[in-house]
Amino acid sequence: MLITLTPKRQFEVPIEAKCITPDIFAKSVDEIAKQPIWEGNKKRLLSELFKIESEKKEPSDEVTIRIFGSVSKVRRIGSKMCQGKIIIDGDVGMHLGEEMKGGTIIVSGNAGSWTGSMMKNVHEPTLPETMIVPPFISSPRCIPALPSIIILPWHILAPILLTLLMSL
After folding, report:
1. In this structure, are residues 21 and 77 in contact, taking their beta carbons and an 8 Å threshold?
2. Would you say residue 124 has pLDDT above 60?
3. Secondary structure of 124-166 as H, E, C letters
4. Virtual CA dihedral for 133, 81, 144, 128, nearest 10 degrees?
5. For 83, left (φ over 0), alpha (ψ -120 to 50), or beta?
6. How crowded is residue 135: how many other Cβ atoms within 10 Å of its Cβ?
7. Which of 63, 102, 150, 153 is in Cβ range 3.0-4.6 Å of 22 for a Cys bridge?
8. Phi and psi of 49, rounded to 5°?
9. Residue 119 dihedral angles phi and psi, to the nearest 5°
10. Mean pLDDT of 25-50
11. Which of 131, 123, 122 has the alpha carbon at shortest distance from 149?
12. Is 167 left (phi over 0), alpha (psi -120 to 50) or beta?
């Protein structure tokens, strides 16, 4: 299932959105729309701040959340995430993937402080992987099965990674 979120406006104050995670979004669009989030000191519903669209593929499909636009004021996206995928086309706020245990987060933009803090690896005793891939690589050869956050800072790493890929 693919859930698409688009901010209805530019956010001026921090948004606490622990509910934006595939684990919670494995529901109907109506249930997703009623998820509580905080805009500053005001409790809101997710549907008040985001346009929510759903595209069901197969019942057994993993949940993928795609966020279009800058959500640099939105904190804790993917918090305690165990499965699925989050794709963010734009900048994202603090604490992205906090206490993440599984799944993948892909960001094509900047990520705020404490990205991936306290990630947990429940599969092996080694640390979770973080990949950095430029945006012109649409599907890297190897996406780790462990919890991962992929950040795409193309302007810095593109020449280096292009050289590495050409040597393979």
Report:
1. yes
2. no
3. CCCCCEEEECCCCCCCCCCCCCCCEEEECCHHHHHHHHHHHHH
4. 90
5. beta
6. 14
7. 63
8. -110, -20
9. -60, 145
10. 94
11. 131
12. alpha
- pLDDT score of 149 more than 80: no
What mean pLDDT is predicted for residues 153-159? Answer: 58
Closest CA to 20 of 39, 42, 40, 3: 3
Tell whether the torsion through CA atoms of 150, 152, 158 and 162 is positive or negative.
positive
Please check the confidence at residue 132 and state whether its pLDDT lies above 70.
no
What type of residue is 70?
Answer: S
User: What does the block give as tokens for 137?
Assistant: 């690589």
Q: Does 65 have pLDDT greater than 90?
A: yes
DSSP H or E run through 45: strand 42-45
C-alpha to C-alpha distances, 24 to 17, 36, 91, 126, nearest whole angstrom: 11, 12, 22, 27
Q: H or E element: which one contains 55?
A: strand 50-55
| Strand order, beta sheet including 42-45 | 42-45, 36-39, 15-16, 74-75
Cα(154)–Cα(51) distance, integer angstroms: 28
Instruction: Tell me if 51 sits within 8 A of 68, measured CB to CB.
Output: no
Phi, psi of 163 (to 5 degrees): -60, -45
Check residues 157 and 141 and name the one with the higher pLDDT: 157
